[in-house]
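testing teh design pipeline on a random one, pls ignore if ur not involved
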């Protein structure tokens, strides 16, 4: 513990040089004590996200938070608020950019209108290769998106892959063939992906992940698409009885902080965020593989019917969905072709 000190300057000094030397030493000590106190002061960092605590990505976030605190020697006090308990999923981006909170995690869909290039991984049947995600952190593709995030007023600190495997949920029968989607009201994601659903004949209804369960339960929508892991953690099996497994999109979350908050951190704290982010990126891939392997059996254990589409059945959906996505995405989003080329470089790396 640091104690305050009082220097009595009214003492009569026999030796002026000794007085000056002692004053210099005392002032230096006080400045050092003040500097060390500031260096060890905890800086609260409130982080909001939409996921239930049981979700695989939520558990990686908790692990990341502990790592940040350890690596920063306690300078950053990470406070995690899951399940929309601090602000809603749709408010996370603006809340961080405006400085109302320090930190949040968002799924890429939430940038659909503000920064649509973030939704590139919703291109149907294009991002199943796990090498993309193993090599993502620090890559040119990641840096490309981080530059654009800064332009939107947030500083990215961590990328967390969730899944490259999805399920089409439904009641009564599986969604497999293109004609199965005709007239179905489905949860939409972002405009370009919604165009691919509509090409199948579905009607896309956009909503956040937290709203899907209730919408399925009340009939606002007939079906949904989500990660296999999320179908378990969000208990979709309580309101849907058929789950068709498809490698149609890849889903990721990312954590970001307010730029002014970030600028005010010490170099050591910034380095801690960098190191923890790189570690968590790898943990997320490992957790995703484990969750995807377990999810089908967990759904079946709850009485759900589960079916994995064959290569031929996936090809039939891809032939319709991918061109519709490309037409909408490529026409609207500047830099899309460059980003896709950067992502292609990650497929062959190990």
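output:
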């Amino acid at each position: 513990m640091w104690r305050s000190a009082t220097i009595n300057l009214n003492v009569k000094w026999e030796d002026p040089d000794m007085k000056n030397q002692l004053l210099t030493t005392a002032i230096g000590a006080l400045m050092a004590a003040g500097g060390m106190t500031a260096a060890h002061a905890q800086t609260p960092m409130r982080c909001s996200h939409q996921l239930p605590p049981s979700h695989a990505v939520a558990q990686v976030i908790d692990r990341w938070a502990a790592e940040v605190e350890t690596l920063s020697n306690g300078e950053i006090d990470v406070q995690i608020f899951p399940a929309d308990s601090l602000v809603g999923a749709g408010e996370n981006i603006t809340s961080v950019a405006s400085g109302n909170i320090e930190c949040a995690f968002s799924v890429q869909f939430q940038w659909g209108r503000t920064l649509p290039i973030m939704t590139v991984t919703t291109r149907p049947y294009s991002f199943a290769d796990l090498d993309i995600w193993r090599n993502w952190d620090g890559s040119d593709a990641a840096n490309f998106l981080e530059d654009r995030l800064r332009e939107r007023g947030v500083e990215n600190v961590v990328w967390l892959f969730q899944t490259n495997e999805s399920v089409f949920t439904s009641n009564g029968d599986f969604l497999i063939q293109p004609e199965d989607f005709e007239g179905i009201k489905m949860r939409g994601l972002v405009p370009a992906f919604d165009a691919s659903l509509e090409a199948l004949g579905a009607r896309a209804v956009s909503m956040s992940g937290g709203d899907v369960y209730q919408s399925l339960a009340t009939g606002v929508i007939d079906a949904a698409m989500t990660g296999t892991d999320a179908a378990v953690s969000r208990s979709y099996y309580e309101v849907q009885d058929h789950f068709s497994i498809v490698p149609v999109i890849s889903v990721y979350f990312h954590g970001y902080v307010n730029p002014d908050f970030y600028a005010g951190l010490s170099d050591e704290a910034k380095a801690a965020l960098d190191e923890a982010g790189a570690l968590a990126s790898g943990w997320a891939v490992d957790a995703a593989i484990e969750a995807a392997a377990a999810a089908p059996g967990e759904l079946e254990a709850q009485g759900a019917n589960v079916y994995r589409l064959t290569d031929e059945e996936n090809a039939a959906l891809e032939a319709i969905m991918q061109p519709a996505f490309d037409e909408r995405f490529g026409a609207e989003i500047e830099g899309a072709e460059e980003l896709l080329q950067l992502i292609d470089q990650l497929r062959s790396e190990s």
